[in-house]
């Protein structure tokens, strides 16, 4: 284990080279990686990785016989990035550490080579390079890898690096935000798992920036208890940028089948009355997220008298370009099983209640809003149902375009505990449930503060709390067990200090 920032004077390389797949038989073993993602939509660039407390190891598998590049960027662009480029040339793998600390984005060879080549191979179609580095290399030109969102940039070229520097990659490039240090949860799916899809069909998206579309669905008719063990988004291909978030609400038992098959805009003056009977959130998904698996001893309960029969799916469409002709059929896939788990899962939405009372001034490089789940709220909810507390195991942090950093603060007996969750490099286009490294117990009398930092230097008018992505939110969704009767625990800013802050000295009531 490496302690502190002691810089070794040499690196030991472990190099394996293969010229063809046939020569790999019985002679070469690739490392096993716990996490994997396709970085491009055509499946040509695969990234795998694993980590421990001090080191991260990557493997890239790319459909090219030239060089491959991977970078860690503060913004998703080339400028100010920490990069590594490698390949296999003349049967020998190569790897070099670069950076683009100059603002023109040109590559500079790093004076310290902190990436370590593990192995490399090339066949007739693909190049595979594996390499590792310390999470904190103690080199100010290398990005420290933390549990914040990391914007990964990638590129490849049909030719290997020449003597001077890599050739320009043209359109073979992209970016993707990831949680590189997200804990790995066992996502084993048994063969006998049951599947139920909840999805809209052929919804015509209006030519406006924000549309919330709701519809009520009936869950499977079950004669005994089941558990949902995994939830996956069903996003229509090409609409990944359009579907911003999906919430699933449990509806009141007074509903019947007459409420089904009626899709309508939510929060509209003429929306169906039945929508008002669906208020408790049971599932949440947001843009950029993948599927979510519950821990091995936890599941979302279906089939009992306390469980939903009808649910309402709310889908937020973000048509910021006002494009015409979108017809969407996205939704959620529920994977469930009669093999029961020990605990029933629940969701708590906490933060700032969405309203115009949530005000964010313009031209502020850093402005913080706070939403409170008060001591009194958790005292009442937990002491009546679960005095021993509930266990939070995953969190989704949610804000809009002005959001820059989000965190959940946890207090017990007026003493602040370690942060429940945080992201100091929040990416609006990547909002995914993140598993906690260690489950956190919430006890009666605890309190939570969801804190959101905004940047409005690019805005000349006030930003208000609201539904549009041009408005703002400050929310967090806590996944926990065992389930209690608490769906929301939020607060509203006091209006008087807000008005004073923006210069309002007196309010005159109109004379009728």
From TrEMBL:
GO terms for molecular function: copper ion binding; dopamine beta-monooxygenase activity. It is found in: Endoplasmic reticulum membrane. The keyword Transmembrane helix applies. PROSITE patterns: DOMON. Residues 1-24 form the signal peptide. Residues 43-157 form the DOMON domain. One of its GO terms (biological process) is norepinephrine biosynthetic process. It is a single-pass type I membrane protein. Its cofactor is Cu(2+). GO terms for cellular component: endoplasmic reticulum membrane; extracellular space; secretory granule membrane. Keywords: Copper, Disulfide bond, Endoplasmic reticulum, Glycoprotein, Membrane, Metal-binding, Monooxygenase, Oxidoreductase, Signal, Transmembrane, Transmembrane helix. Belongs to the copper type II ascorbate-dependent monooxygenase family. This is DOMON domain-containing protein. The lineage of its organism: Eukaryota, Metazoa, Chordata, Craniata, Vertebrata.
């Amino acid at each position: 284990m490496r302690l502190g920032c002691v810089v070794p004077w040499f690196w030991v390389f472990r190099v394996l080279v293969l010229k063809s797949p046939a020569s790999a038989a019985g002679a070469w073993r690739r490392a096993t990686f716990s996490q994997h993602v396709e970085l491009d939509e055509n499946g040509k660039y695969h990234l795998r990785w694993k980590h421990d407390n001090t080191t991260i190891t990557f493997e890239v598998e790319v459909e090219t016989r030239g060089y491959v590049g991977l970078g860690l960027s503060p913004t998703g662009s080339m400028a100010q990035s920490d990069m590594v480029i490698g390949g296999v040339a003349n049967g020998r793998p190569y790897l070099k550490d670069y950076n683009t600390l100059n603002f023109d984005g040109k590559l500079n060879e790093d004076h310290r080579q902190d990436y370590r080549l593990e192995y490399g191979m090339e066949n007739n179609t693909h190049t595979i390079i594996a390499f590792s580095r310390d999470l904190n290399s103690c080199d100010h030109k290398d990005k420290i890898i933390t549990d914040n969102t990391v914007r990964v940039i990638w590129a490849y070229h049909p030719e290997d690096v020449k003597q001077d520097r890599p050739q320009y990659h043209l359109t073979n490039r992209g970016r993707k935000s990831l949680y590189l240090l997200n804990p790995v949860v066992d996502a084993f799916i048994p063969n006998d798992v049951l599947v139920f899809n909840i999805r809209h069909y052929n919804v015509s998206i209006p030519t406006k920036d924000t549309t919330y579309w709701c519809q009520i669905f009936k869950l499977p008719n079950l004669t005994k208890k089941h558990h949902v063990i995994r939830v996956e988004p069903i996003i229509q291909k090409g609409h990944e940028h359009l579907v911003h978030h999906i919430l699933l609400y449990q509806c009141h038992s007074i509903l019947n089948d007459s409420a089904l098959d009626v899709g309508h805009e939510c929060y509209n003056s003429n929306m169906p009355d039945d929508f008002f009977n669906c208020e408790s959130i049971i599932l949440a998904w947001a843009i950029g997220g993948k599927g979510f698996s519950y821990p091995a001893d936890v599941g979302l309960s279906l089939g009992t008298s306390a469980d939903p029969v009808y649910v309402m799916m709310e889908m937020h469409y973000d048509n910021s370009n006002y494009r015409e002709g979108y017809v969407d059929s996205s939704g959620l896939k529920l994977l469930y099983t009669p093999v029961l788990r020990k605990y029933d899962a629940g969701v708590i939405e906490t933060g700032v209640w969405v309203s115009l009372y949530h005000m964010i001034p313009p031209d502020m490089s850093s402005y913080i809003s706070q939403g409170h789940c008060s001591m009194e709220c958790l005292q009442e909810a937990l002491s009546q149902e679960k005095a021993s507390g509930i266990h939070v195991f995953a969190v989704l942090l949610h804000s809009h375009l002005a959001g820059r950093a989000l965190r959940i603060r946890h207090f017990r007996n007026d003493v602040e505990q370690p942060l429940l969750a945080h992201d100091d490099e929040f990416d609006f286009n990547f909002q995914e449930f993140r598993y906690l490294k260690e489950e956190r117990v919430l006890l009666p009398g605890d309190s939570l503060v969801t804190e959101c930092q905004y940047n409005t230097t690019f805005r000349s008018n006030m930003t208000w709390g609201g539904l549009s992505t041009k408005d703002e939110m400050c929310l967090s969704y806590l996944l926990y067990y065992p389930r209690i009767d608490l769906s929301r625990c939020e607060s509203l800013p006091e209006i008087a200090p807000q008005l004073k802050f923006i210069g309002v000295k007196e309010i005159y009531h109109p004379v009728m």
